[in-house]
């Protein structure tokens, strides 16, 4: 019987061991699969981000060119444009005849004289050739609307011989080009030219130079006549808020013009896109800019020399879309982009100066013979005397494509296709067509992370502005403000959260009664379950407006609340020992009750601080309207001054007092500690004031550094509210790290005569440092990736400003707000993935460094 029981027991033990081994293997397999799956998932995310981002940095390319012979009328054209399908083109001659021709053969299929009565004597063409402004010998000026019309005729309306046109084939029909698309649809491309009534009536002198632009109140035309008169013509309209025209009147204004010394008539006259500037340009580079914002009083703003070398001459001019940036090509092969920008150093009547922001050159001293700009991507195509051409991007100053004809004949005219996917160049009696693949020319490492000189700015800047109101908008995809905003949000959030979380963990782990801790810790951990969108909503609609109302009290509370706690601690020491022991169980309740006392004290002290330090108006002081910088320096330097004072007291004062107070009573020590506390407060304030006065005497003002204009949704509110999202994470991990320190270390320290505070600072914290550091790093990762709180409470303004009272925009907030509206596959869309990749890289780097530091702390802890 005994042997049977023993055998049964052994069998049961074997089955138990076997089941344990099976469970252990399953657990190891699941852990391995989970670990490998995590690595694969993270790697897949990284690879996907890289896959989306890489096309941004692929180089542009040019395909095999195609050459066709042209009719003499087209070859001698003054301007050429092609349709978006690259099958049809039009060319305008100096006599005002528009010829429509096929791009594949060069055959002219239609000719139309626009001005049979008289040829134009001056002309300019708008961006993309959609409008031509022509001046005539009788002084009149007329506009012509030019463009292509796409229709889809029905088969029944076509002759029988072309109704069955094969797919991919084209034929001439109705003064246009009929083609069948790959989808089987018939498409007819025709050219339309509409001559409008004269916008400037006939005068006495022939028009030498002319240009025209529109403003909301009407069209403005600039005319330079053969008799040397410079005039403005146009129409003024008054409109209601509903855009209803009340009345309209014509005007003619003489512009005060005096030719520069030794100069004849100007070679070019240009009117800017907003009709606020008028340019007169001579061949040697002299430019006169007139301020014509007030049409009743046009004024000469400045004279600028567009060229540097004495032997240079202007060979080609063109506006970028919007007619703000003027692109100048010269005889030495240089291309320079100029635009007006307001500057504090400007001494002009309108406060702006013309700036040469971009210079593009390939180093070859060959003349620029033609210029063209694209409608969509701010590309500049330049044809050269040696038959070559180059494509530049104006924002990034990059040369994207360089190619040449095989004839070494100057490219007299160049033009982009409407989609920017081809370049057409005219040389001699032939036309060249190059297919282009420019990719994303506005994006480069420099434009993403460097300072770029954008149109209208007086200096290179880091700017994020991804969308605009029209085709002439210049995308500003500088990610510097977004990275800066992410760092700013993280820094201010950690400044608020880390001290509170770590000190709370130290107190609850080493000093708080276990029974109270068992209730407090779960309550703090439950704070982590609050959705960030709820915190952001509360921050934006409750906290931010309230803080704005009691702003002086909040600013004072940064110092008053800690002072209240420290004062309460010193007053507690004045209690008799017996009373202190009786009330020990209620100590935490007294600590909690100190907070409302500090808040009330801050509300009382706030207006007093505002009156003493900020001339009674904190907002005006922040705007720089009143007072000196001393008050701001005192507020900023108080924490540093307090740390220095505490260090001096602990290292110098306390050792001396211990020797002198041996044998003193508890009450005497408490009174002395209270006096020392008040003395330390006075020294702290005096030290901050002394350094503040010194800095102010050196003309160093904190306004403009970390203090400036107060905005309702700002970094202060974000740091406060995000702190509540970070504190539970840091507190929980830090408390667990402190609690896991072996008890024998704590007992040995206390047994050696150390106080609980000395034990916590010198034994427990160094041992748990790896865990504490991990807690801070996890909080940092939470702050870096936070989206909803910063989106709702930070104002979402991409600026580079450390001002704690101003907003910012983070990488995560930009992704959340802009990715749903970004065109898939566009530069904006892919740049947002660059932002995601930047977040990934930042997190990876921070975690790698954190792990290395944590392991070092852990090795030091093992040595204990």
Offer a concise description of the structure.
By secondary structure, this protein is of the alpha+beta class.
Describe it.
It contains 20 helices and 33 strands. The protein is α+β, with helices and mostly antiparallel strands and 864 residues long. The strands form eight sheets. The protein has a six-stranded antiparallel sheet with strand order 7-8-9-12-11-10, with no helix packed on it. Strands 1, 2, 29, 30 and 31 form a five-stranded antiparallel sheet that branches. A hairpin with a 2-residue loop joins strand 13 and strand 14 (218-225). Helix 7 crosses helix 14.
Q: What profile does the largest beta sheet have?
A: 6 strands, antiparallel
User: Which term fits the overall shape?
Assistant: elongated
Give the overall average pLDDT: 86
The proportion of residues in beta strands is 15-25%
Low-pLDDT runs of 5+ residues are none
Strand tally, please? 33
Primary descriptors:
alpha+beta, 6-stranded antiparallel beta sheet, 5-stranded antiparallel beta sheet, 864 residues, 20 helices
Write the layout of secondary structure elements.
Elements: H1 2-53, E1 61-62, E2 66-69, H2 72-75, E3 79-82, E4 88-92, E5 97-102, E6 108-113, E7 122-125, E8 131-135, E9 141-151, H3 160-163, E10 170-173, E11 176-180, E12 186-195, E13 207-215, E14 218-225, E15 230-239, E16 245-254, E17 268-271, E18 277-281, E19 286-291, E20 299-305, E21 314-319, E22 326-330, E23 335-342, E24 352-360, E25 368-373, E26 379-384, E27 388-393, E28 398-404, E29 413-416, E30 422-427, E31 430-437, H4 445-449, E32 464-465, E33 476-477, H5 480-510, H6 514-526, H7 532-549, H8 551-573, H9 577-582, H10 587-613, H11 618-622, H12 630-660, H13 666-697, H14 715-739, H15 743-751, H16 756-767, H17 769-785, H18 788-793, H19 811-818, H20 827-863
Antiparallel strand pairs: 1-31, 2-31, 3-4, 4-5, 5-6, 7-8, 8-9, 9-12, 10-11, 11-12, 13-14, 14-15, 15-16, 17-18, 18-19, 19-20, 21-22, 22-23, 23-24, 25-26, 26-27, 27-28, 29-30, 30-31, 32-33
